[in-house]
Amino acid sequence: xxxxxxxxxxxxxxxxxxxxxxxxxxxxxSVYRRAxxxxxxxxxxxxxxxxxxxxxxxxxxxxxxxxxxxxQARLVRMRRGLEAVSVSDDALTQxxxxxxxxLALNSPDLRPGxxxxxxxxxxxVFLGLITDxxxxxxxxxxxxxxxxxxxxxxxxxxxxxxxxxxARTFRLSLEAAGVAxxxxxxxxxxxxSDVRGALGVGMQAVxxxxxxxxxxxxxxxxxxxxxxxxxxxxxxxG
Length: 238
Ligand SMILES: [Mg+2]
Hints:
Blueprint: E1 8-11, E2 18-19, H1 25-37, H2 45-54, H3 56-65, H4 70-83, H5 90-106, E3 109-110, H6 114-121, E4 126-131, H7 135-144, E5 153-156, H8 157-160, H9 167-177, E6 184-188, H10 191-200, E7 204-208, E8 221-223, H11 226-237
Parallel strand pairs: 1-4, 1-6, 4-5, 6-7, 7-8
Antiparallel strand pairs: 2-3
């Protein structure tokens, strides 16, 4: 990482400070197993998943514009996934949406090194969280993991109406921290939303990628785990 004065560190939440056992994909597979036991076709998972994810972009845009709540967005997304396998059942849609919420909220654990990293950073720099997602779920997840009071500022996309990788998302956090982009680093697992987004506004970026720097964008620094992240930041902070 370039040795510049560092005054703020921003972290992503999901798959950066936390990890899902079996990966986040396991959450949707678990949801679909319940759909099958309620009558959905056993070979329909790919169709369900495609429709489910294809609807996400438009629903998040509506959520960030404030025309739909995160809770409603999750229900509509589940309904569109089920419609792709010819299932139309409001009660089942509600049950599966609640099951997704339960897994998304309760299955992730803190990644090894998260507690150490946060404890070491607090007070040394402005420490912020920038996470995309549903306000109700992200707030409850932070509380469950004991993270709610460990940042100087928490920014959740539904609450501010903008998500990564849009420049406005990063600028909101930079303004709140009172730092210039070059004085800040974004740490996250997603090469596009976390890393390219941050680089695009002139911030420094660390790409957390346990499998190796296979898709780490030029200009970013790769880290294999959170202990690596701490070492990089220790060097940058002197
Ligand atoms: Mg992430």
